[in-house]
Design a protein that fits this description.
Blueprint (H helix, E strand, L loop, with lengths): L25 E9 L4 E8 L2 E9 L16 E8 L2 E7 L7 E6 L4 H6 L5 E6 L1 H15 L4 H7 L10 E3 L6 E5 L12 E6 L15 H19 L6 E6 L8 E6 L12 E3 H10 L3 H4 L2 E6 L3 H7 L9
Antiparallel strand pairs: 1-2, 2-3, 3-6, 4-5, 7-14, 8-9, 9-10, 10-12, 11-12, 11-13
Pfam families: DcpS, DcpS_C
Main location: nucleus
Subcellular location: Nucleus
Protein backbone atom coordinates (compact mmCIF):
# COMPACT_ATOMS: atom_id res chain seq x y z
CA UNK A 1 0.00 0.00 0.00
CA UNK A 2 2.96 2.35 -0.51
CA UNK A 3 3.36 4.67 -3.41
CA UNK A 4 5.45 3.64 -6.38
CA UNK A 5 8.63 5.46 -7.47
CA UNK A 6 8.72 4.79 -11.18
CA UNK A 7 8.49 1.57 -13.15
CA UNK A 8 9.44 -1.52 -11.12
CA UNK A 9 12.27 -3.72 -12.24
CA UNK A 10 11.86 -7.46 -12.66
CA UNK A 11 11.78 -9.20 -9.31
CA UNK A 12 13.07 -12.62 -8.35
CA UNK A 13 10.35 -15.23 -8.16
CA UNK A 14 10.22 -18.79 -6.90
CA UNK A 15 9.20 -21.69 -9.15
CA UNK A 16 5.57 -21.23 -8.13
CA UNK A 17 5.70 -17.53 -9.04
CA UNK A 18 6.02 -16.29 -5.45
CA UNK A 19 8.01 -13.10 -5.26
CA UNK A 20 11.27 -13.33 -3.30
CA UNK A 21 11.59 -9.62 -2.65
CA UNK A 22 13.23 -9.89 0.76
CA UNK A 23 16.19 -11.84 -0.61
CA UNK A 24 17.01 -8.93 -2.94
CA UNK A 25 17.18 -6.33 -0.16
CA UNK A 26 19.99 -5.76 2.34
CA UNK A 27 18.74 -4.37 5.66
CA UNK A 28 21.60 -2.66 7.50
CA UNK A 29 20.06 0.07 9.67
CA UNK A 30 17.91 -0.32 12.77
CA UNK A 31 15.49 2.61 12.81
CA UNK A 32 13.65 1.83 16.03
CA UNK A 33 12.92 -0.97 18.48
CA UNK A 34 9.72 -0.84 20.54
CA UNK A 35 10.16 -3.18 23.50
CA UNK A 36 6.61 -2.62 24.76
CA UNK A 37 4.88 -3.51 21.50
CA UNK A 38 7.64 -5.96 20.47
CA UNK A 39 8.24 -4.26 17.12
CA UNK A 40 11.44 -3.57 15.22
CA UNK A 41 11.87 -1.26 12.23
CA UNK A 42 14.79 -1.58 9.84
CA UNK A 43 15.94 0.22 6.71
CA UNK A 44 17.93 -1.06 3.79
CA UNK A 45 18.22 -0.94 0.04
CA UNK A 46 17.78 -3.08 -3.05
CA UNK A 47 17.68 -2.81 -6.81
CA UNK A 48 14.58 -0.61 -6.72
CA UNK A 49 15.83 1.80 -4.06
CA UNK A 50 15.45 2.21 -0.32
CA UNK A 51 13.31 -0.13 1.78
CA UNK A 52 11.71 -0.10 5.22
CA UNK A 53 10.48 -3.21 6.99
CA UNK A 54 8.40 -3.45 10.17
CA UNK A 55 8.85 -6.67 12.15
CA UNK A 56 6.17 -7.52 14.67
CA UNK A 57 5.81 -10.45 17.05
CA UNK A 58 2.21 -11.59 17.11
CA UNK A 59 -0.10 -11.67 20.15
CA UNK A 60 -1.12 -14.99 21.63
CA UNK A 61 -4.50 -16.25 20.53
CA UNK A 62 -6.98 -18.46 22.36
CA UNK A 63 -6.88 -20.92 19.48
CA UNK A 64 -3.11 -21.56 19.57
CA UNK A 65 -1.78 -20.60 23.04
CA UNK A 66 -2.17 -24.11 24.46
CA UNK A 67 -0.57 -25.66 21.36
CA UNK A 68 2.75 -24.03 22.26
CA UNK A 69 3.11 -26.38 25.25
CA UNK A 70 2.07 -29.57 23.50
CA UNK A 71 4.52 -32.36 22.85
CA UNK A 72 8.24 -32.42 23.58
CA UNK A 73 8.84 -28.69 23.43
CA UNK A 74 12.42 -27.45 23.31
CA UNK A 75 13.19 -25.35 26.38
CA UNK A 76 15.97 -23.96 28.52
CA UNK A 77 15.72 -23.28 32.27
CA UNK A 78 16.84 -19.74 33.12
CA UNK A 79 16.43 -19.96 36.90
CA UNK A 80 14.48 -21.66 39.67
CA UNK A 81 13.52 -20.28 43.07
CA UNK A 82 11.36 -22.50 45.27
CA UNK A 83 8.16 -23.13 43.30
CA UNK A 84 8.99 -20.50 40.64
CA UNK A 85 10.64 -21.47 37.35
CA UNK A 86 11.55 -19.31 34.37
CA UNK A 87 12.24 -20.88 30.98
CA UNK A 88 13.13 -19.97 27.45
CA UNK A 89 10.74 -21.83 25.16
CA UNK A 90 11.41 -22.60 21.51
CA UNK A 91 8.02 -23.46 20.01
CA UNK A 92 7.37 -24.86 16.55
CA UNK A 93 7.96 -22.39 13.75
CA UNK A 94 4.28 -22.24 12.78
CA UNK A 95 3.50 -20.96 16.31
CA UNK A 96 6.36 -18.48 16.42
CA UNK A 97 6.21 -16.49 13.20
CA UNK A 98 6.96 -12.79 12.84
CA UNK A 99 4.75 -10.52 10.74
CA UNK A 100 6.80 -8.37 8.35
CA UNK A 101 5.40 -5.33 6.54
CA UNK A 102 7.63 -4.07 3.73
CA UNK A 103 7.58 -0.64 2.08
CA UNK A 104 9.62 -0.88 -1.13
CA UNK A 105 10.68 1.30 -2.77
CA UNK A 106 10.53 3.65 0.21
CA UNK A 107 10.90 7.42 0.36
CA UNK A 108 12.69 9.48 2.99
CA UNK A 109 9.26 10.19 4.50
CA UNK A 110 8.73 6.49 5.08
CA UNK A 111 12.15 6.16 6.72
CA UNK A 112 11.55 9.13 9.01
CA UNK A 113 8.10 7.83 9.93
CA UNK A 114 9.61 4.72 11.54
CA UNK A 115 12.78 6.30 12.97
CA UNK A 116 13.37 6.75 16.70
CA UNK A 117 12.94 10.47 17.35
CA UNK A 118 11.99 12.93 20.05
CA UNK A 119 8.32 13.87 20.03
CA UNK A 120 6.60 17.21 20.57
CA UNK A 121 2.98 18.08 21.36
CA UNK A 122 1.59 20.75 19.03
CA UNK A 123 -1.47 22.81 19.97
CA UNK A 124 -2.77 23.81 16.57
CA UNK A 125 -5.20 26.74 16.48
CA UNK A 126 -7.40 27.28 13.45
CA UNK A 127 -5.04 30.09 12.41
CA UNK A 128 -2.01 27.82 12.65
CA UNK A 129 -3.85 25.21 10.61
CA UNK A 130 -4.58 27.67 7.81
CA UNK A 131 -1.18 29.40 7.95
CA UNK A 132 1.10 26.42 8.53
CA UNK A 133 -0.48 22.97 8.31
CA UNK A 134 -2.73 23.37 5.29
CA UNK A 135 0.00 24.81 3.00
CA UNK A 136 2.27 21.98 4.15
CA UNK A 137 -0.36 19.35 3.32
CA UNK A 138 -0.95 20.78 -0.14
CA UNK A 139 2.78 20.90 -0.87
CA UNK A 140 4.28 17.92 0.93
CA UNK A 141 1.72 15.13 1.32
CA UNK A 142 2.58 11.63 0.15
CA UNK A 143 1.22 10.18 -3.05
CA UNK A 144 -2.12 8.49 -2.23
CA UNK A 145 -2.73 6.77 -5.55
CA UNK A 146 -2.72 3.49 -3.63
CA UNK A 147 -5.87 4.68 -1.79
CA UNK A 148 -7.66 5.35 -5.06
CA UNK A 149 -6.53 1.93 -6.35
CA UNK A 150 -8.35 0.31 -3.41
CA UNK A 151 -11.46 2.45 -3.85
CA UNK A 152 -11.61 1.58 -7.56
CA UNK A 153 -10.84 -2.09 -6.75
CA UNK A 154 -7.71 -2.13 -8.89
CA UNK A 155 -5.88 -3.63 -5.90
CA UNK A 156 -6.77 -5.45 -2.66
CA UNK A 157 -10.37 -6.15 -3.71
CA UNK A 158 -10.09 -9.65 -2.25
CA UNK A 159 -9.44 -8.11 1.21
CA UNK A 160 -12.61 -6.01 1.35
CA UNK A 161 -14.76 -6.80 4.40
CA UNK A 162 -17.61 -4.48 3.44
CA UNK A 163 -18.44 -1.76 0.94
CA UNK A 164 -21.13 0.88 0.70
CA UNK A 165 -20.65 2.20 -2.86
CA UNK A 166 -22.57 5.45 -2.35
CA UNK A 167 -20.31 8.30 -3.61
CA UNK A 168 -21.31 10.64 -0.79
CA UNK A 169 -21.73 8.48 2.33
CA UNK A 170 -20.10 5.26 1.16
CA UNK A 171 -16.82 3.64 2.15
CA UNK A 172 -14.72 0.50 1.88
CA UNK A 173 -13.79 -1.41 5.03
CA UNK A 174 -10.78 -3.73 4.94
CA UNK A 175 -8.12 -5.11 7.31
CA UNK A 176 -5.34 -2.68 8.08
CA UNK A 177 -1.87 -3.67 6.91
CA UNK A 178 -0.75 -3.73 10.55
CA UNK A 179 -3.06 -6.68 11.31
CA UNK A 180 -2.04 -10.19 10.34
CA UNK A 181 -5.69 -11.30 10.37
CA UNK A 182 -4.82 -14.46 12.29
CA UNK A 183 -6.35 -13.59 15.68
CA UNK A 184 -9.10 -11.30 16.94
CA UNK A 185 -7.07 -10.08 19.91
CA UNK A 186 -5.45 -7.38 17.76
CA UNK A 187 -8.23 -6.93 15.18
CA UNK A 188 -7.56 -3.78 13.16
CA UNK A 189 -9.58 -2.56 10.17
CA UNK A 190 -9.73 0.76 8.35
CA UNK A 191 -12.58 2.47 6.49
CA UNK A 192 -11.68 4.53 3.40
CA UNK A 193 -14.37 7.00 2.32
CA UNK A 194 -15.40 7.11 -1.34
CA UNK A 195 -15.81 10.89 -1.25
CA UNK A 196 -12.66 12.66 -2.37
CA UNK A 197 -11.27 15.95 -1.15
CA UNK A 198 -11.78 15.34 2.59
CA UNK A 199 -8.26 15.44 3.97
CA UNK A 200 -8.81 15.09 7.72
CA UNK A 201 -11.16 15.93 10.58
CA UNK A 202 -10.30 19.60 9.97
CA UNK A 203 -12.49 19.47 6.83
CA UNK A 204 -15.53 17.98 8.59
CA UNK A 205 -18.73 19.87 9.33
CA UNK A 206 -22.45 19.16 9.62
CA UNK A 207 -22.85 18.17 5.96
CA UNK A 208 -20.58 15.19 6.69
CA UNK A 209 -22.69 13.83 9.58
CA UNK A 210 -24.55 11.34 7.33
CA UNK A 211 -21.18 9.99 6.16
CA UNK A 212 -19.76 9.67 9.68
CA UNK A 213 -22.88 8.06 11.12
CA UNK A 214 -23.10 5.66 8.17
CA UNK A 215 -19.51 4.52 8.73
CA UNK A 216 -20.06 4.09 12.46
CA UNK A 217 -23.23 2.02 12.04
CA UNK A 218 -22.44 -0.05 8.96
CA UNK A 219 -18.76 -0.49 9.78
CA UNK A 220 -19.61 -1.80 13.25
CA UNK A 221 -22.29 -4.11 11.82
CA UNK A 222 -19.85 -5.50 9.24
CA UNK A 223 -17.22 -6.22 11.88
CA UNK A 224 -19.79 -7.87 14.14
CA UNK A 225 -20.92 -10.09 11.26
CA UNK A 226 -17.38 -10.93 10.08
CA UNK A 227 -15.46 -11.14 13.36
CA UNK A 228 -18.09 -11.39 16.11
CA UNK A 229 -17.07 -8.21 17.93
CA UNK A 230 -19.92 -6.02 19.19
CA UNK A 231 -19.92 -2.25 18.63
CA UNK A 232 -19.09 -1.64 22.30
CA UNK A 233 -15.99 -3.80 21.88
CA UNK A 234 -14.57 -1.47 19.23
CA UNK A 235 -12.37 1.60 19.38
CA UNK A 236 -13.35 3.71 16.34
CA UNK A 237 -11.28 6.81 15.70
CA UNK A 238 -9.42 9.20 13.42
CA UNK A 239 -5.74 10.08 13.54
CA UNK A 240 -4.75 13.71 13.62
CA UNK A 241 -2.40 14.35 12.01
CA UNK A 242 -3.16 11.34 9.77
CA UNK A 243 -0.40 9.47 7.98
CA UNK A 244 -2.10 10.23 4.65
CA UNK A 245 -4.62 12.91 3.74
CA UNK A 246 -7.66 11.03 2.50
CA UNK A 247 -10.29 10.66 5.19
CA UNK A 248 -10.15 7.25 6.84
CA UNK A 249 -11.33 5.79 10.13
CA UNK A 250 -9.67 3.13 12.29
CA UNK A 251 -11.52 0.19 13.89
CA UNK A 252 -9.69 -1.75 16.66
CA UNK A 253 -10.54 -4.41 19.17
CA UNK A 254 -10.85 -2.29 22.33
CA UNK A 255 -8.66 -4.81 24.20
CA UNK A 256 -5.76 -4.08 21.84
CA UNK A 257 -3.57 -1.03 22.50
CA UNK A 258 -2.99 -0.28 18.83
CA UNK A 259 -0.20 2.06 17.70
CA UNK A 260 -1.59 5.58 17.43
CA UNK A 261 -4.64 4.94 19.63
CA UNK A 262 -3.36 7.16 22.43
CA UNK A 263 -4.18 10.70 23.53
CA UNK A 264 -3.00 13.54 21.22
CA UNK A 265 -3.15 11.17 18.27
CA UNK A 266 -6.59 9.51 18.24
CA UNK A 267 -9.93 11.33 18.04
CA UNK A 268 -12.93 9.08 18.69
CA UNK A 269 -15.55 8.99 15.92
CA UNK A 270 -18.38 9.31 18.46
CA UNK A 271 -16.75 12.44 19.92
CA UNK A 272 -16.28 13.95 16.47
CA UNK A 273 -19.94 13.37 15.63
CA UNK A 274 -21.05 14.84 18.96
CA UNK A 275 -18.85 17.93 18.61
CA UNK A 276 -20.16 18.67 15.12
CA UNK A 277 -23.74 18.25 16.32
CA UNK A 278 -23.03 20.82 19.05
CA UNK A 279 -21.25 23.22 16.65
CA UNK A 280 -21.40 22.57 12.90
CA UNK A 281 -17.96 24.04 12.17
CA UNK A 282 -16.31 22.85 15.39
CA UNK A 283 -13.25 21.36 13.68
CA UNK A 284 -12.67 24.47 11.62
CA UNK A 285 -12.45 26.57 14.81
CA UNK A 286 -11.12 24.24 17.51
CA UNK A 287 -7.56 24.06 18.77
CA UNK A 288 -6.40 20.48 18.14
CA UNK A 289 -3.44 18.79 19.83
CA UNK A 290 -1.23 16.25 18.11
CA UNK A 291 2.29 14.84 18.26
CA UNK A 292 5.10 15.40 15.77
CA UNK A 293 8.51 13.76 15.60
CA UNK A 294 11.57 16.00 15.66
CA UNK A 295 12.51 15.36 12.02
CA UNK A 296 9.01 15.84 10.63
CA UNK A 297 9.00 18.64 8.07
CA UNK A 298 5.80 20.04 9.53
CA UNK A 299 7.60 20.63 12.81
CA UNK A 300 10.09 22.82 10.95
CA UNK A 301 7.19 24.88 9.65
CA UNK A 302 5.88 25.39 13.17
CA UNK A 303 9.31 26.48 14.41
CA UNK A 304 9.10 29.48 12.09
CA UNK A 305 5.98 30.54 14.03
CA UNK A 306 7.79 30.74 17.36
CA UNK A 307 5.75 33.76 18.40
CA UNK A 308 2.71 31.45 18.60
CA UNK A 309 4.27 28.13 19.53
CA UNK A 310 7.54 27.46 21.35
CA UNK A 311 9.66 24.56 20.15
CA UNK A 312 13.28 24.24 21.25
Amino acid sequence: MAESNGSPKKRKVDEDGTEKILSTIKFDTILRIDTEKKNAFLAGSGEQGDAVIALEKQPFSKETAADILEGDISNELIFKNDVYHTFKLFPKSNLNFIKATLTYPATQKHILKYSDQKRYVIEETSKLYNDVTLPFILQEQMNIEWVFNILSKKTESERIVYEDPDPNVGFILLPDMKWSGLQLEDMYCVALVHARGIKSIRDLDDKHLPLLKNIKIKGSEAIQKKYGLESNQLRIYFHYQPSYYHLHIHFNNISYEAPGSNVATAYLLSDVINNIELMSDYYKKATLSFVLKEQHKLLEKFKSHSEEIAIE
